[in-house]
Design goal:
By secondary structure, the protein is α+β, with helices and mostly antiparallel strands. It has one domain. It has one helix and three strands; from the N terminus they run E-E-E-H. Strands 1-2-3 form a three-stranded antiparallel β-sheet, with no helix packed on it. It is elongated, with a radius of gyration of 15 Å. The model has no long low-confidence stretch (mean pLDDT about 90).
């Protein structure tokens, strides 16, 4: 599994896995690390978190 490293100028270089599907994402000198390979995976994570919170409240 790849690892992104934070450089002295504040940019990230290397790969990080997507939080949803574990696909490696090249960071390519970004200031903030990309955590999801696309917007749909970010949305799925948010929806699953909301559903879990609502079910926890109603249980």
């Amino acid at each position: 599994m790849g690892r992104a490293r934070l450089e002295k100028d504040g940019t990230y270089h290397g790969d990080l896995p997507c939080r949803w599907c574990e696909a490696l994402i090249a960071q390519g000198g970004r200031r903030r690390p990309r955590r999801y390979c696309n917007g749909w995976h970010r949305t799925k994570t948010y929806v699953s978190w909301v559903v879990t919170a609502v079910v926890g409240i109603l249980s």
